[in-house]
Design brief:
Largest sheet: 5 strands, antiparallel
Strand order of the largest sheet: 12-11-10-9-13
Oligomer: single chain
C-alpha cells in the first residue's frame, strides 16, 4: 500500500497483537494473515483479543499461560471461580443445587421487582453505559436519539434519529425507560434509554463510537455490505494473564475496513490514537488536532497516510427493547406464522401492536403454578446479554402462557446447519458460532444459572452468523414433567451429562457436557449425535466410557484440537470439565491456542 512508505504512519496497536509496524515496514512476528488472524468466509478477522491470554493458579502453583482449568478463573481448593464478571455472581442454582449465598433473588446484580441494576458489566446488560461512563455518573439532561423509534406503549414517544429530548431530573439514570420531553414538539412521554446518548461533542456521543473489543470491531466492520473506508473508534483493550479484559480509558483505537493489497480480501487495520499532555490528539505526530472530531474529519477528507480515506461510520444495529411490564395483555399480540414446535410448546412469528416483530412461544400446560411461573419468568426477563435471546415479556393471565422474545431472522441453528450442509459454512464460521454460544453461556455461568437444555435446536441465528442462546430457564418451568417416560425426553439424553441423565444432578458443568455435544452438531452441520443409537443405549455406553470419535466424513474437516476440546467437555468428573470462561477464551483465540499446544490444524476449507 502506498501508506506503508510513510514514516509517519502507524498501525502498531501498542499491545494489540496481530498487527504490523508501518513506520519501519517490518511485519509483526505473528504475521497479519496467520497467527492473530482468521478468515470468516473470505474475509479477514483478527483473533488475538488485543493482548495476551492465560490464567493463574493460587497457592503454590506457578502462573500458566495456557491452563485448561485456570484460564478465565482461579482455583480455590477444588472449586473454579469465574473471573468474568468480577464478583457479579448471583442468581439461582440448578434443581440439585442450593441457591446462591450471594443473593438468591438477585440475578446479575439486579434486584427482582425493582428498578435497580448492576453497574458491573461495562457497556452491557446488567449495567449499561452511556457513552464511556455509567449513566448514574452523568448529569443527564439533553440527549440525542441514536435510532428511529416507534412507540410500543400508549405513553411512549415516537421519534427519529438525531431528535433531541430533555430528560426529567428525577429519572433514575440506570432504568430502561426515561421520562423526557421532545425539544421540538414539546410532547412528553417515555423513551428507551438505550436509544439515546448525551448530546455533547465527546467521542462517545458520535455515530462512529463503539464500546467493543477488537474482535467484535473486526466482525462488525467486515459485514459484506460495508464499503472500504467504513470505520469506528473504540477504547484500546488488552487481555491480562487471567482472562479478564482490561480497558484503557485514556487510549483510543481507530479501526478501518480496507483490502489486502495482494488478495484484495477485506480486512481491518487498527491505528492507535495518541493524546498529548495538552489534550491534543494525533495518529501521525506531524499533524495534531484539538479534538477527536477534527481528527476524524481530517481523515475523512483524505487518507493522509492511513490505509484508505475514512468513508462512513460503521452502522449500528438497533437494539431490541424490553417492555416496561413483564406480564402484558395478549390482546396486543398478533400471531402470524407458525415457525415450529417442541417439547415446551409452539413457536410463532408475530407482531406487537402491529409495530414490533416478535417471536411467541406458546407453552404447553405444566404443573407449575402461575405465581411460580412468573417468578421464573422474571429471572429470564432480567438475564440480559448480547448473546442471550431477549425475553421481552410474558402473557400469563390465562392459558396457554405465552413467552414473547425477539425474533431471529434465520430460525434455529440446527435447521440452518442442516440446510447449508457445509456448502457455505467454513470451519472459521464454526469457531465463530462456538465462540458466541460460549459467550452467552459464560454469562450464565458467572451467575450460577443453569441452562438445562443446551443444544443446536435451542440456539437461534440471525443475520451475519449472529447467534443467541435461547430457552434458558424453560426446563425449570417443566421440572415435574420433564423426566417422565417420554420419547422426546429419552431423545434428549444424547445431550445430557451422565450425572444429569441418570441422577438428575444438573449444574453448569452438565451444561458444559451439552456444549461438547453441540460442538459435534456444529462440525457435522446438524447431524444427530450418537448416530444409530437410542437414548438408553447412549446412556449405558457413555457410563462405560464411550465417547464419540472425531468426525472424518463431513464437508468441514474436524481438526484434532477441536475434537480434543469436545472430549474435555465429556470428562466423567464434572470438576475436570473446562469452564465456559475457558471455552470462550479458546474460541476467541483458536489459532493462538492450537499453535502453542503444537497440535496440527487441518485445512479449513476456505
Amino acid at each position: 500500500m502506498g501508506a506503508s512508505s510513510s514514516k509517519n504512519e502507524e498501525n502498531r496497536n501498542d499491545g494489540e497483537d496481530g498487527g504490523r509496524r508501518l513506520w519501519s515496514d517490518s511485519k509483526s512476528e505473528l504475521d497479519d494473515e496467520a497467527v492473530g488472524g482468521r478468515r470468516l468466509g473470505n474475509e479477514f478477522i483478527s483473533y488475538l483479543d488485543d493482548g495476551a491470554v492465560g490464567g493463574r493458579r493460587l497457592g503454590s502453583e506457578s502462573k500458566s499461560d495456557l491452563n485448561d482449568e485456570a484460564v478465565g478463573g482461579r482455583r480455590l481448593g477444588s472449586e473454579l471461580i469465574s473471573y468474568l464478571d468480577d464478583g457479579a455472581v448471583g442468581g439461582r442454582r440448578s434443581w440439585s443445587e442450593s441457591k446462591s449465598d450471594l443473593n438468591d433473588g438477585e440475578v446479575g446484580g439486579r434486584r427482582l421487582g425493582s428498578e435497580s441494576k448492576s453497574e458491573l458489566d461495562d457497556g452491557e446488560v446488567g449495567g449499561r453505559r452511556l457513552g464511556s461512563e455509567s449513566k448514574s455518573d452523568l448529569d443527564i439532561h439533553i440527549v440525542r436519539a441514536l435510532y428511529d423509534f416507534d412507540a410500543i406503549h400508549d405513553d411512549d414517544l415516537s421519534f427519529k434519529k438525531d431528535d433531541k429530548f430533555n430528560v426529567e431530573e428525577n429519572t433514575a439514570p440506570n432504568s430502561d425507560w426515561w421520562v423526557a420531553t421532545h425539544i421540538s414538539t414539546g410532547q412528553k412521554g417515555y423513551i428507551p434509554s438505550d436509544y439515546v446518548i448525551k448530546d455533547d461533542n465527546s467521542p462517545q456521543s458520535q455515530d462512529w463510537w463503539y464500546d467493543v473489543k477488537r474482535t467484535e470491531a473486526d466482525i462488525q466492520l467486515l459485514f459484506p455490505e460495508n464499503p472500504t473506508g467504513t470505520f469506528l473508534v473504540r477504547w484500546r483493550t488488552c487481555c491480562t494473564a487471567i482472562r479478564s479484559v482490561s480497558t484503557y480509558r485514556d487510549q483510543m483505537i481507530l479501526s478501518v475496513r480496507t483490502s489486502e493489497s495482494k488478495s484484495n480480501d477485506a480486512c481491518v487495520k487498527h491505528y492507535r490514537i495518541h493524546r498529548l499532555d495538552n489534550g491534543c490528539f494525533f495518529i501521525s505526530n506531524k499533524k495534531t488536532f484539538d479534538n477527536m472530531l477534527d481528527l476524524i474529519l481530517h481523515y475523512q477528507n483524505g487518507a493522509n497516510g492511513l490505509c484508505c480515506k475514512l468513508d462512513v461510520p460503521c452502522p449500528k444495529i438497533r437494539p431490541m427493547v424490553q417492555f416496561r411490564e413483564l406480564d402484558v395483555s395478549r390482546n396486543y399480540v398478533k400471531l402470524q406464522k407458525k415457525l415450529g414446535s417442541g417439547y415446551f410448546g409452539e413457536v410463532w412469528a408475530g407482531k406487537w401492536r402491529d409495530i414490533v416483530d416478535i417471536a411467541v412461544k406458546t407453552l404447553k400446560p405444566s404443573k407449575m403454578t402461575p405465581e411460580a411461573f412468573l417468578e421464573e419468568a422474571e429471572l429470564m426477563y432480567n438475564l440480559r446479554h448480547k448473546k442471550l435471546l431477549l425475553v421481552m415479556a410474558v402473557c400469563a393471565k390465562s392459558k396457554p402462557i405465552w413467552v414473547i422474545t425477539e425474533l431471529m431472522a434465520k430460525g434455529t441453528l440446527l435447521d440452518y446447519l442442516r440446510k447449508d450442509g457445509g456448502n457455505t459454512i467454513t470451519f472459521n464460521i464454526i469457531t465463530h458460532l462456538a465462540e458466541q454460544i460460549a459467550d452467552g453461556m459464560a454469562f450464565l455461568e458467572a451467575r450460577n444459572f443453569v441452562h438445562f437444555n443446551l443444544r443446536a435446536a435451542n440456539i437461534l441465528i440471525g443475520e451475519h452468523y449472529e447467534v443467541k442462546v435461547a430457552d434458558f430457564g424453560l426446563a425449570r418451568v417443566f421440572e415435574e414433567d420433564i423426566y417422565e417416560a417420554h420419547e422426546d425426553i429419552m431423545f434428549l439424553i444424547k445431550w445430557n451429562a451422565p450425572e444429569a441423565a441418570g441422577g438428575r444432578k444438573f449444574s453448569i458443568k452438565s451444561d458444559v457436557w451439552s456444549y461438547g455435544v453441540l460442538l459435534y452438531e456444529l462440525i457435522t452441520c446438524g447431524r444427530e449425535p450418537y448416530p444409530g443409537m437410542k437414548g438408553n443405549e447412549v446412556l449405558n455406553r457413555v457410563e462405560k466410557g464411550y465417547r464419540m470419535p472425531r468426525p472424518t466424513d463431513g464437508l468441514i474437516p474436524c481438526p484434532e484440537p477441536y475434537h480434543e476440546l469436545m472430549l474435555k467437555c465429556w470428562n466423567r468428573s464434572p470438576d475436570t470439565r473446562p469452564t465456559f470462561a475457558f471455552l470462550l477464551d479458546f474460541f476467541e483465540n483458536y489459532v493462538s491456542y492450537t499453535e502453542r499446544t503444537k497440535l496440527p490444524i487441518e485445512s479449513q476449507n476456505d
